[in-house]
Each structure stands twice: as structure tokens, then as C-alpha cells.
Input
Amino acid sequence: MSETNPAAAEAAPHRYTAALAAEIEARWQDFWDAEGTYAAPNPKGDLAGDPEVVARPKKFIMDMFPYPSGAGLHVGHPLGYIATDVYARFQRMTGHNVLHTLGFDAFGLPAEQYAVQTGTHPRVSTEANIKNMQVQLRRLGLGHDKRRSFATIDPDYYKWTQWIFLQIFNSWYDQDAQKARPISELVAQFESGERPVPGGRSWSELSSVERADLLSEYRLAYASDAPVNWCPGLGTVLANEEVTADGRSERGNFPVFKAKLRQWNMRITAYADRLLDDLGALDWPEAIKLQQRNWIGRSEGARVDFPIDGEKITVFTTRPDTLFGATYMVLAPEHPLVEKFTPDAWPEGTHEVWTGGHATPAEAVAAYRAQAASKSDVERQAEAKDKTGVFTGAYATNPVNGQRVPVFIADYVLMGYGTGAIMAVPGHDTRDFAFARAFELPIVCVVEPTDGRGTDPATWDDAFVSHDAKIVNSSGEHVSLDGLNVTEAKARITEWLEREGHGEGTVNFRLRDWLFSRQRYWGEPFPIVYDEDGVAHALPESMLPLELPEVDDYSPRTFDPDDADTQPETPLSRNEDWVNVTLDLGDGPKKYRRETNTMPNWAGSCWYELRYLDPHNSEKLVDPEIERYWMGPREGMPHGGVDLYVGGAEHAVLHLLYARFWSKVLYDLGHISSAEPFHKLFNQGMIQAYVYRDSRGIAVPAAEVEERDGGYWYQGERVTRLLGKMGKSLKNAVTPDEICAEYGADTLRLYEMAMGPLDVSRPWDTRAVVGQFRLLQRLWRNIVDEATGEVTVVDTDDVDEDTLRALHKAIDGVRGDLEGMRFNTAIAKVTELNNHLTKRGGPLPRSVAEPLVLLVAPLAPHIAEELWRKLGHTDSVVHQDFPVADPAYVVDETVTCVVQIKGKVKARLEVSPGISEDELEKTALADERVVAALDGAGIRKVIVRAPKLVNIVPA
Output
């Protein structure tokens, strides 16, 4: 327990206890709020402040947006928030103007689910959760500029989310200029004839619907019939990350089907190259960069056209050199050409195994499509699963040799990758090989094996895959690749495809356009209306924000979970008065229908860093001068961005990729100077906790588990223990409120920072928290008399050299550790110094006590403020200069040199840090312990690593 016993409390009434910590912490938190201690001044506008502070170097430090959960915080949640707070405090003390604040990502499914269950409006529950979280965070002493905080559900905020959507909607990507441009410039090109209208007609000859359809092919935000994950049991479309590997909804465990629905999309694929290229200049963990590179998935190859019934099927392949080995084709079940080329009857000679036991191709295709629709993309592409598929009844022609190749559909081909069609080369692709064996399809060797297996695939157990081998069996009437290596063959066949009009060299990406619609209520409404012809129109800025209307029923309509032939019905669609409106969009009042989908929860977090800069601006997204000041490009940051962004690695390819895309569009359109949102990214680890489960596998309350007899027991039953996540459902959550009540917020801060390196996960142990509490008690005792409450510090210049060395080494080490975010080792150095001062005894000199308090200030700010004030200062410790070490006391007078003979330590010498190798060798050989150990033996070799090691090898 943190409290003393009654007798001890009477003897030391001014001892640092939990009660005193609570009183100190509450008082200083009130002071900071009242004084605006953490207000970061802008160079202009309503948040402008002291010009001297604005003139300092700036630091913009951010945490990833928290979602205000009804469960509140457990001690794992504040890890990153405490870390950024420590770092921000250090930066203020080293002369920076620091912007550090926190808002709330408040749209999302949990609040909507709660609304469905209870009838409570999502805004009511969300705002209550925000208030609770604000109280919990305030208790931790986080130095946030509260003037800049907001929630994504604030209409003043999502007005600009809607505005950004309209900028994207009203833009297109100019491949020649490699940037986004206003859609009006594209329209001008069509009108003038500079850009031909497909089909040969002029722009003026197109109807409004035709013009809208044409522009939709270019817009960066567009609506299309897209393949989606449709969950009838939930009544909504799900993102890929919301679907389990076995093709069911993560929430509710309902079947999920592939369906085509009209949805809004973001053309993020237009930025694929730039998203890849600009990663190099970002100070991000390599693991995150690799995840983004893999997700974007750039690959070079060729598009090849396979003629079929007077038209063509186009495939993308990274191995055009293997075209002569293509013996069949596979389309994704959702491919739009499947129905077009499926004949009424099976062609003569169709293998029975190809038909799936169906009487007609149409029946086979329909049955297989239904089967494939129930599987997730992950499940469809699982390498270990049996290959399934069905013949469409159609044949295409291989352009290099004129051979007819059967066209199948199979679920291992996805519509979202490449063209949704592949040329199958079973001799040199493992999946194609397995499929060919299962369906008795021919396998041809066109890349000569180098492993001795020979060139007859009938004898092979698997495909031969190589990017560095000789091409064989690849000669035709028009082109030959035989004898070339893979690289040479790729170049020759690509040149031939382009010359003959059968394809072209191209680059492909794994990245797909971003599905941007949700069939939910609690999200940003789209600022889009549709006219009577179904043409989408953007609302003018004067009509923003388009606020969410009140509805009686927050839930989307659900259906029979197994009925794939259903369509979403959104909550907003049931509000007829809101959906059907008469508006004047510049050409007189007309009737329109509003978009009834809402934006995904990612929308608000794509740009929130910009709102922190200029949070009250009602006229602009952000003032350009303010944005340049905080986020503009500068030395070492060629794309600009936030100086430090801290959060979990789980957002690598969702939030982080989406936010980068939005920044680049806004940059291209001239709204911001930063082409990247976050320059430096740091991924904190996770605070884990032990989960205890009974014989049924059900979690039991961790706090009630006893450890005895070499095991763990709950209510008399032995339970198992496993290290895992911390959470309410796992019954192992510890709240920060509990720890603050028991020890104080400063102790909690120190414990979380001292547990280990910030970027690794670590187990929580409540019993270990007391160690940091005792550090603070010793710190307090070194400055304050526990009996009288008086400061014991003395004003003297007489400080012993050992203390000066301990102090300046600590200053030097802590400064470096805080700059490098090595908070655990910084605390270790503070502890070492404090222990030295405790052992030293006697009152501390002021010249030692004050630097000690300043070293602690970023880590434990409340006790530091209190001690700073007790030391006679009237200014807040927050803005004091961080101590600077005197180099004369940092360098050791002597260092210990180890002398080894045959690898065994024989002597330790105290030598000068600057001793030369020759001098160190002479000193070591002259040492009497070394002479005795050698006992007259000759010396074959002496290895010297000045100043710390001499290794002697006897003859």
C-alpha cells in the first residue's frame, strides 16, 4: 500500500503519500488550465500569441486519434499519450514552440450499436464517453493545448470533411502532370476538343447523363457498381478487415457474400507510384514502410489480349516470357465477361470434370458463383486449399501460337487484382499447376528446370518457378524466345505484343480503389444529391455542413443471413423528408434525392492533423501561413508533415495510407504545403496483462486469482494463465483511476515509461508500481523535511566532485535519452542520481536540487511543479530550460581496463580514458599481477583495445 501507517504518518506529516500526491496533482492541473500553460501560439489568427515563442523552432507532436469507448480507459491506453507528453515537455524545455493536443475520433460502429440496443442517440452516448475520457486523461497531467481539441462528430469539423470530399470529387488525376487538377479543367479540354471524347462525338452532343458518366471515369471520388462484402444478416456492406478468414462477419458471425452494389470509391490507385516513392523520405519504421509497399504491390509486366468471339479478354502478367506455356485461362467468378461468353450448351468433347456435374455452362457458372460469393478474399487465396472451378464453355486464343485455350472461372482469381483474369501457365505457377492437375489440363514446360527434374511435366510433383533460367519450347510462326534468359525473353515478347497490337508493357498494382460507402447512420453524410436522371451533384460550400438528421431507427434493415439476393436499406433512406429535397444549385429550384450512405469512420481521421493547426477557422480548411509554419517542408523534411506521430502499428495500411492520399490531393490542389501528413512515425508497444481462464475457457477476474502451490486458483478451482491483451471482456483490466488513487498520476507515468523500451510490448504488474512511488518519495525527502514541510536545500557553491560528476552524467544521459524517446533508461539515470544524493546525506545544495527537479519535470510534472515552487520560483517549471551538462564532469577521470590472459581476467587497471594503445600495453605488462600470471612465459601476441581491454596470448 502507498499510505503510511498512522504512527509513521504522525511522525512525518509532510511525507509524500498518495493523499498528498492527489492534492498536489489536482492543484497543478487546475493551475495549468487556468494559466493556459500548454497553449501553443500560432503566427496569426485567434490562437496567435507571444511572437518570441512563435520565433522558436516548432515541434508538432501528435497521438493517433482515440475512440471514446463507453468502457473508458485501462492502463494500456495511456502508454502512447504519456510518452508524447514526456517528449513534448522535454521539447518545450529545450526551446521549442510545441503543439500537442488531442481530439476524438467519434463516428463509428460501437455508438451506433449501442443506439440500436438502447435507443440512446449516438451523439448522447458518444459525448458522455468523451467527457469521461477527458476526465481520465486530465488526471494523468497531460499537457494538451485544450483550445485545439475537437471531435469528428462536431458539425464545425465534419463540414470540412465534407468539403474535402467535394475537392476530391471535383478533381481528376492528370497522368501527364502527375497531379490532381480541378475537374473543370478536364471539362474545358473536352469542350475545346483538346481531349477527344471517346466514341468520336463532341462534348456538346453528349447528354447530361453521358457527360456525368464520362467524368466519373476520371473523378478521384466516383460512384460505381463495385464488388463488395455484403452481409444480409447485418444489413450492411463490410470492409475487408471486418470479414473473418472463413467468410463471415467479425460482428455477429453472419455469412458474407460478394455482391455488386453502387458505392462511392476514392481513386487512390492514381497515387500508387507517389505513395510508394515518397515513403523513402519519411522517418518511419521500416516494417511499416514494407507493409505499405507490399499493400500497394507494384509489379512490372505486360497486358496481353486473348481474342474470344470477336472481342478479347485482357490479362496482366509479370511473366510474359511464359506465354507459350499458357494452356488455359481463369476469370474471377465476378468478371463481367463471364455471362457474355458463356454458351447455351457444353462444347463437344468437354471433359466431365470441367462441368462440375451441371447440365449447362450457365447452370455451372451460376452455382459456382454462389459458392464463391460466400468466401472471403483471404479464404479464396489460401494456398493450402483444394483448387475449385468450373469451365465456362468458352475458348479464347493464345496470341503467340494461335492455340485455343479453355476459359474457366475459379475463386483463387480475384476481381480486385489486375484485370480479374489470368493466363494460366501451370508448368511454372504452383496454383496453376494444382488446378491443372485437378482438372486434367495440359502442362507445358517453357522455362528449363535447373534442378535436374527434366522438361517433362508429367514427371513433376510441382511447378518449376525461376526468374533466372533459359526459355524453351517457345517458338512460333511469328516470334521465338527459345534460348533467351527470362529478362531477354520478357523484353522480346513485350516488344512483339506491342508491335502486333496484342498487348503492351505496363505496371500493375495490388492496391485497389478505396471503397468509401457505409450503409450506416452514425457517420458523415455525403454532400451529394441526385437529380431525376440519377446524375450526382455536389452541394455548394454554402450548404455545408450537411448535418445528420434525427431518425427513429438507427439500424440498417437486416435480412435472412443466407439470402445473398438482397440489397441494403440504410437508416437515412427511411427519412423521406430529409432524402427528398428541393434545392437551387445555381439553375433554379429542382427536386433532388440525397445520398443515403454515410462516409466510413476513416474519413474524419484522414485530415485531423490540419484541424489542430487552425481549429476555429470557419472560412478555410486551414490558414496557409499557419499550415506552413507547423507542417511545411523544411530541412530533413522535404514533404513536410507532423514532427512526431505516435500510435499503433495496426494502422499501417488503412489510416496511414488513406491520410497520405488525402494529403497529396490537397497538396496538388494548392490547399496545403505538406505533401505528407506525418514525417516521423513511432509505433509504441502494447501493455499486456495475464488472462486467467477456468476449465470452460472462460476468463475469470484477474484481481481475484491467487498464486499458490506452483499454480493459479480462483474460488478453489485451478485456472490457466496466459499473457495477452488487457480488456474489460478478459476481466484483467486495471484502470488508471485505480493506480492514481493508490499512488498518484506521477507514479503511474513513471511506471509506464520505466517498464521497458517504448516500442516493445510489456506485461503489467500492479505490484511493481510501488517501486516508482518510492523513487518519488526519496526525491521528495531529498528536498523537503517530512516532519516540518520545510525545504532543506542550502545555498552553497561547495559541492563535492563525486556529486558533480553524478549530476552532470545524469544530465547528459537523461537529455540524450529523452531526445531519443528512451524513457526507461532516462528514469534509470534519474534513479541512480537520486540514490547517490540520498546516500550522500545532508542537505542538498541548490545547484544540485534545482537541476534534479528539472530532470524529473518532463516525466513527473506535478511533483516537479510543487518542488520548483517550494524552491522559491514563481514561474512554472514547464517552460524552464532543461539543464545542460558540463563536459568536464561527464568524462570519467579514469576507466577500468580489463587484462586477460588466455581469455581469463587476471587484472583490472584504472587508466586515463585517453591513454594510447602503446602506453596501455606497457602498463598492463608491467602490472605485478600480470607478471605473476605469465610466470616467465613468452608472449606471442598482445591485443589492445584502448582504453578498456588488453588480451595477452602467451607463446
Summary: The chain has 31 helices and 31 strands. The two ends are 63 Å apart (CA to CA). The domain at 893-954 is CATH 3.10.20.590 (Ubiquitin-like (UB roll)).
